[in-house]
Amino acid sequence: MNSDERVAKLSCISINGETALYGVIGNPIKHSFSPRMHSLAFQECGINAVYLPFLINESQLPQLLNAFVISGVQGFNVTIPFKEKIVPYLDLLSDEAAMLQSVNTVIRTDDGWKGYSTDGNGFIRSLQAADISLKGKRILLAGAGGAARAITVSLALAGVSEMVIVNRTQKKADNLAELLHSAIPNLHINTILPVDLQTDIVINTTSVGMHNDDCPLPDEVLRHCNQVVDIIYNPPETRLLKKAIEWSISHMNGIDMLLYQGVEAFELWTGQKAPVDTMRQSLIDSVYSGSATNHSPKKSS
Ligand code: NAP
């Protein structure tokens, strides 16, 4: 590398006295895709900022926000196991975060640290990007864990007409239905598989299919739906999605949900439109590292 090339390379990384600091807290954290994705996004938008991973322990949470004020952190993401544990330390919560009592994005405001949950909106934006409309749709959703909570709240706010939530542990599905019903009383919600299986969109939010080749829902349900969404992104084609492909049902995996959570965080921090294509490519490179599969949301005829 000659000196001109070295200067050109260094001028891309313009760290100086005004560089803003962002990051992600979690434990473990070294496998996070976010530092690379957000660093590339800042660079592409000409924003003078860096994004770092912060490995922390639960005992450090009480001092964390003061340490972040002192070190000039402007905002950060929160991942496992701190999404719920960070809540008592924040000054403000968005409506979704307050309802879910879970936060994955924090921004420093004039009134203090404000927590958001971008999982649900990230999911909705991933459907919008694939031209999947939700208004008046009947949804069957498998799972009642953290992702299901975030997604169902956003689906309800997006105007779906009817939702069926099924889960291995029935009590958790019932609790989620109760939470949704108390917030959005007009929503038709059920936690038992209906006899009439006709469904517009089937969504898997369980981890079934991530570490094994199982399918979270019976074949009869899948055969009666128009669209299948699996929020698992690795493997890119779970057993559920393979069945949708076999039966020519429109389908998509969870890579764009992951992407749009990051897009939402970037836009909250910077107030600018995120460079979606760059962020998507970064994620695909990081998550699939060279796999030849086409990971775009697909529509089959
Ligand atoms: P979680 O809170 O631990 O919930 C796990 C859910 O899966 C629960 O409903 C659980 O049922 C169900 N489940 C687990 N093992 C099962 C089995 N063997 N049979 C039937 N049901 C089973 O996890 P989460 O945070 O919601 O994440 C769930 C999945 O979504 C993971 O695969 C995660 O990678 C994925 N995810 C993707 C994104 C994205 O951006 N694409 C974001 C978040 C999560 P019980 O209640 O009965 O235990």
CATH architecture of the largest domain: 3-Layer(aba) Sandwich
Question: Helix/strand-derived class?
Answer: alpha/beta
Distance between the termini: 51 Å
Assign a percent range to the helix content: 25-40%
Characterise this structure.
It is a single chain. The chain folds into 2 domains: 3-118 and 256-295, 3-Layer(aba) Sandwich (Rossmann fold); 121-252, NAD(P)-binding Rossmann-like Domain (Rossmann fold, 3-Layer(aba) Sandwich). The N and C termini lie far apart (51 Å). It has 11 helices and 12 strands. The strands form 2 sheets. It has a 6-stranded mixed sheet with strand order 2-1-3-5-6-4, sandwiched between helices. The protein has a 6-stranded parallel sheet with strand order 9-8-7-10-11-12, with helices on both faces. The chain has helices at 3-12, 34-45, 61-70, 95-100, 119-129, 146-157, 170-183, 219-223, 239-246, 255-270, 276-288; strands spanning 20-26, 49-55, 73-78, 92-93, 105-109, 112-116, 138-142, 162-166, 188-190, 199-204, 225-230, 250-252. Mean pLDDT is 91; it is low at 292-301. It is of the alpha/beta class. Helix 2 (34-45) runs antiparallel to helix 11, helix 5 (119-129) packs across helix 6 (146-157) and helix 5 (119-129) crosses helix 10 (255-270). NADP nicotinamide-adenine-dinucleotide phosphate (NAP) is lined by residues 119, 143-148, 167-169, 172, 205-208, 210, 231-233, 254, 257-258, 261.
